[in-house]
Write a structure and sequence with these properties.
By secondary structure, this protein is of the alpha+beta class. 55% of the residues lie in helices and 14% in strands. A hairpin with a 2-residue loop joins strand 4 and strand 5. Helix 2 packs antiparallel against helix 4 and helix 2 packs antiparallel against helix 6.
């Protein structure tokens, strides 16, 4: 066990080479896509809506297709089945996701500047936790929308779970849910961090970090 702890300590103390630092900078740049592109997209098709009703979920707002009219139409349909309106005020995620992603980008740049494996591992773990928690939060929100139906609704239907990923038939609607470009950007940033960590771990000779350089000088 002592040998394993010592090996872990040596691994975390490894310095990052230039190639790995570039990967970290790229990961930080990729994370900025969250402020531009949607995280998730939902589309609903029905005989009366052959073109589909579209909803895009950004890190900070809900955007309906057709100039926002699709969101109004979706909420009108939800009213008939007793589902509460899709409103930005109900998505507490809009308050913390932009902040968290910005913090992750800054921490990634910090890891690139300080150039140590321990900083890279910290950022990698935080990114993984953020991705897992965000996905759970999104799924939980969909579950609540589909299960907290008003008993006084004009149209009675059994509680349901909207799809988190893929398609599902709900009443006479075909509902499709897929990640948006921002989610793929988060995945790409995570992949860059993993590659950077593996490259550092596989390197035979550690690159002296700043602390080691100061001691040697």
């Amino acid at each position: 066990m002592q040998a394993g702890l010592e090996r872990t300590r040596r691994l975390l103390d490894l310095g990052l080479d230039l190639r790995t630092r570039v990967l970290l900078v790229l990961a930080a740049i990729v994370l900025t896509a969250v402020a531009i592109f949607p995280l998730w997209s939902l589309t609903m098709f029905a005989p009366q809506y052959p073109q589909g009703l579209r909803l895009e979920i950004y890190a900070f707002e809900l955007v309906g297709g057709n100039g926002g009219q699709d969101l109004k139409e979706i909420n009108l349909l939800n009213h008939y089945i007793g589902m509460r309106d899709l409103a930005a005020a109900d998505f507490t995620e809009f308050y913390w996701i932009p902040f968290v992603v910005g913090a992750l980008a800054l921490l990634t740049l910090r890891a690139a500047v300080f150039g140590r494996m321990e900083h890279l591992v910290d950022v990698l773990v935080l990114n993984g936790y953020f991705a897992a928690f965000s996905l759970w939060s999104f799924a939980h929100k969909l579950y609540l929308y589909g299960h907290e139906l008003s008993p006084s609704a004009a149209v009675k239907m059994a509680p349901f779970m909207p799809p988190v990923f893929g398609g599902r038939q709900i009443a006479n609607f075909e509902v499709y849910s897929y990640p948006g470009l921002a989610s793929y950007a988060l995945g790409a940033a995570m992949l860059l961090l993993i590659v950077a960590a593996l490259l550092t771990a596989w390197r035979e000779e550690p690159v002296p970090n700043l602390r080691q350089q100061q001691v040697l000088s």
